[in-house]
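Let's practice the habit of predicting before peeking. Look at the sequence and jot down your guess about where helices and strands might fall. Then scroll down.
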Amino acid sequence: MGQPLFIPVDKERELVIATDNAGGIGSKNNDIVDVPYKTVAESLFRVSFMDCLAVGATPFAVTISNFVGDEVWDELEQTVRNLGHSLGYNLDITGSTESNMAMSQSAISLSILGWVDTSEKRISISPEMSGVALIGEPLVGEEVLAYPEKIAPLELFVEVSKQKWVYEILPVGSKGIQQSIQELKQRNGWKNRDLDIPFDEKASGGPSTSFMITFDKQYKNEVVHLAGKYTSFIV
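Done guessing? Here is the structure:
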């Protein structure tokens, strides 16, 4: 998982581009992980959508790069469209399919584009003594399929992103919780804040099955009430 790209359009607004991809995951004979393409599309959408929304942007369009073949395009497009609608977003969708060369393994990339007002960006705005919570659990590979009840729902992510008492949101990706903590410390200039989180901090978070938030500590009870059973850590 990479960081979203910010492209200033004028003094007040920026274009945000968030991307995720998958290789060797799908229904081809040589794929390493055998799953339906609907599942692949859901995972790619999840990561890109969370990265976009986390920085305060409003998603408006999706691009899909499909190297599987023409036969899966409709499934990919419809999956993305349905996910957008279920979360309250009417997303324009475009993309391309590699139809000249047949590949032995699946490969798909998905990008989400959004707009953010520069003054509303959710980056580097967390006081050092902010509350910190982990919502959902970091899972990867077969764990994602085995423990769906531990995955923070996208609907919950959207609801959390709407709360004014939440400072920043960081989806936990392939570099794990440790990377998210380091990012929080570096971009906010935290010097004396240590966080002892009861998970393997270096373990991959896979397709952002969990996310960290910083929040105004007086709203700690609201975090627990909102996230419920998905509250894995809070301080």
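How did you do? The mean pLDDT is 94.
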